[in-house]
Design the sequence.
């Protein structure tokens, strides 16, 4: 496994945070799949601009757990900068510019930004695509299953997703979305080959004036080379604030202290 596939994590963090939705009246008509996707998008994008402090804990079979912390700078839907603060990859940065279709690794002590792909494996088996704030409603078509399902005792509507572009890392997905609150509770992500890659559980939310926000999630890695690896992400802090757009270019990203 490459060093980017070793335990630790630049995940998501940016990636999967939630907004509350009103409860559904008992007699309300079934929502359209697209509306559910937009609700899930809103939930994953609770922070429009600002910084999240994230703790990642990666556990592998027969290995001691590995912990790291990172700051995730977010501006809009398509700009993310991950800065490792502790752990083996301290001071490394991952710059994601979905508006340009570019991702770079910025390593301390080097002047060159290293281009990497959305499929590049990062820490704890996670890929760049797990970090990017890609809109589900803009990249997937969805079908609502006729019957609800239970996730940890919560009644959920279930959506089957198919990616519109062959370049999308996860070609297929299943999302379980709480029937009453609209919050994602589980996701199953599969590659174009049909192999199941990751199962995500959204485990804990807190109360916020704008609605619940994700505090803890767990990723179970399902591919053969990653099987037995579990990554837990805990969002320690949300800081809503305006950011200088220059930190989302390669030179500006290096200037973040």
Sequence:
């Amino acid at each position: 496994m490459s060093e980017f596939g070793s335990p630790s994590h630049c995940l998501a963090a940016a990636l999967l945070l939630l907004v509350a939705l009103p409860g559904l009246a008992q007699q309300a008509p079934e929502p359209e799949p697209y509306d559910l996707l937009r609700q899930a998008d809103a939930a994953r994008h609770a922070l429009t601009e600002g910084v999240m402090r994230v703790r990642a804990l990666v556990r592998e079979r027969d290995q001691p757990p590995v912990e790291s912390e990172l700051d995730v700078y977010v501006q809009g839907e398509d700009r993310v900068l991950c800065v490792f603060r502790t752990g083996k990859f301290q001071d490394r940065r991952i710059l994601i510019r979905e508006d340009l279709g570019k991702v770079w690794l910025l390593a301390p002590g080097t002047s060159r930004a290293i281009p990497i792909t959305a499929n590049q494996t990062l820490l704890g088996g996670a890929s760049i695509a797990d970090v990017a704030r890609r809109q589900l409603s803009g990249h997937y078509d969805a079908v609502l299953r006729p019957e609800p399902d239970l996730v940890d005792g919560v009644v959920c509507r279930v959506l089957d997703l198919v990616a519109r572009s062959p370049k999308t890392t996860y070609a297929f997905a299943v999302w379980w979305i709480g029937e009453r609150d609209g919050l994602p509770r589980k996701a199953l992500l599969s590659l174009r080959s049909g192999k199941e890659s990751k199962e995500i559980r959204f485990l804990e939310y807190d109360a916020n004036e704008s609605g619940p926000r994700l505090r803890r999630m767990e990723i179970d890695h399902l591919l053969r080379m990653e099987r037995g690896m579990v990554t837990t992400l805990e969002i320690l802090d949300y800081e809503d604030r305006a950011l200088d757009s220059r930190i989302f270019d390669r030179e500006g990203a290096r200037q973040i202290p």
